[in-house]
Amino acid sequence: MNTTTAPGKRNLIKNKRCCCICVWITSAILGLGLLFLILGLTVFKAKRPVTKINSVGLSDLDVSLDLARLRVVLNVTLDIGVSVENPNRVGFRYTNSTAYLRYRGNDVGEVPIGAGRIGARDTRALNLTLTVMADRLLSNSDLYTDALSGTLPFQTYIRMEGKVKILFSIHVVTYTTCDLEIDVLNRTISNQKCRYRTKL
Known about the structure:
Keywords: Membrane, Transmembrane, Transmembrane helix. This protein is of the alpha+beta class.
């Protein structure tokens, strides 16, 4: 009795084995893909980093009126305490940014914020000093009126841009704006109101 397997039958068995192996590999890849997708949408879902202004202090204020020329010479320096919270389970890398000091919609002071990284579920504190560039205020017609009224309206604006990398990089931009008034006579900050926004 001849027990030798026919060539056609051997090829059929070989093809079945190849099909089984392909099915197993495909199933494993799909399973891993589904697992990563579930983790990406739940545990590792990208969350928005939040930038907050914790404190604003007036470290220097010098106001002098030139009544003859109806001009104001103004020097203002603000110390700002900022915190950036990263609620993600992975690090947040941010690029070079800038904090601005604005007077009635015009940029009158700025300070750079160097690029960096905030670890998973970590918070970084930034201490910034914003100084008014006096030459940018000379042509502003509202300054004289505001100085005489005793109240100077300013706004701080910080925009930070970066990436959160989970399964792929997610672009994130955070915005922080604080409206505040400087009481010239009392040399204090009043009516401070801050707003925060993050965009994925």
